[in-house]
Prior knowledge:
Layout: H1 2-21, E1 27-35, E2 41-52, E3 59-68
Antiparallel strand pairs: 1-2, 2-3
Amino acid sequence: IHEDIVKAWQNYFVVLRAELGVACGCISHTADIWSDHNRHPFLAMTVHWIAEEAGTGSLRLRSALLAFH
Length: 69
């Protein structure tokens, strides 16, 4: 099952890289750090961009998770 998870994550980044390659304008990165009630730290990194909807030409804000630890 570990190999399936790793393969799915790799496929996710292939698709994400393609989507970011055609982003309209800038790509923004964000990071958030927090801890739970037991003081266990967490880190999440995300990316945000504007994408043009296929067929309609309308713009849409998109976001994706880059990392979570």
